[in-house]
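Q: Protein A?
A:
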Amino acid sequence: MTRYIPLDDQLMPSSLPTIRLEHAMAFPQVAARNYYHWVIEALSRLMIAKEILDRDPRIVLLVPANPPRSKNPGARRPFILQYLDLLGYSGTQRVLAYNGDTHRVAITTMYYADWYNRSPRPGMHFCPPQAALLAIRRQFAPTHLPVQQRPNVVLISRADTGVRKLVNENELVLALNQTAQRHGKLFQLFVGAALSIAQTIELFQSARIVVAPHGAGLANMVFCG
């Protein structure tokens, strides 16, 4: 006879304390601590499940522990929790930030929101359906000015990261600022760690042009409309 060993027992020591929940939903994927994967993939799953979550307040949301970048006592609230604040899901009774290094979670009834991938191309399951992305935009940035009237020319800086920094960022800032002024627009240098999620959404909601190297900050273009 083959003995079934639960996946959690294979990944996490059984000596860890167990948190027990009656009803819970998991919607993030493995990289959801990353800003891009949280916004584009995890929030897409949450939008799919939102009607069920709003109808049944017993369901606890399982989200990955997402500590702030800074260790300072005044550090900004983690971005995952800021998004859940905007959705009205705040509070320990509704959200559990799990950490596999400190505890395990046992759930009686588990819900998981996902989409069916019909594409034969490899990796396409990481691309949410358009309807889910539009639901994110409607939820967080429901209104937009006409494109020509949007005031912001945004450069996404990577000054707050350790990789893929722009070596000539100062020169690019100067050039974009001059170009924005010439066309009656407002240049904005976006550094993710400097703004709250609400401020970030407002900035990209009013963006006419976004300039950026590859990076998680491009996920904010979902709010551009």
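Q: Protein B?
A:
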Amino acid sequence: EYMGTSLMAAEESGDSMRLDACVNVQALVRKMRDPAEGIEIKDRKYRLKTYKQCFVGEELVNWLLSYFRVSDPTLAKREEATALGQRLMDQGLFSHVTDTDKKFADDFIFYRLAAPGSDAVYGCAADTAGEEIEHTDEELAALVAEMFGPGGVEISDRRWRLRKYPQCFIASEAVDWLCLRLHVSRPKAVAIGERMQDVEVFEHVTGSHDFKDEYLFFRMCTPPAAEQTLADFTARDLDGNEVALSKYLGRVVIVVNVASF
């Protein structure tokens, strides 16, 4: 079962974790792809043939058990981890190196991650035929509130080429979130992001890029200051007392600028 950007996968249970509750897919995928802490990806050989940049199914099961801090990796736990691997595979995160229909197995079998930004990642099929998802202004506002609320797209301070960009998010991660939340293709998710940018929900951190499915930083737009009216000001009466002009709402008021020396 899938719940927004979360996949039924893990829940704390003492000092270990059960592989049958909810986990943030984005966090799992980011960690899985991490060169230092993720699954080992390298060129591998089998029967004199080299398979470029792939990983072993058995090693992914081991990695998942470690990621979820399973202290007692019984056969049943390995089966649960294998089932989770299959769900990730069904989402399009990876596929067998030669047979895209081959199921995931806890064995010495080679799999390859989908390229970041491809339409296959996170279950977003490249076939966009029939996608007619449009949002009213109210629906878009609700989607934005969910997207940038708790459990939504991660907003944090980020660095690029020695420069710090406060409180921003990565465009490709926003696309991931939209794909999972709305069950749409990546091109459709990008189109939704473009509309959000057009209506000034967010902007590129330097104003130099349109919204794309790339490693680009965007930040929320600062809401424009509310327009002030005469009722927002105060003035002194003839006795020198401060008077709120809001008391004259609905009445005709003549404002005279009196110069004093």
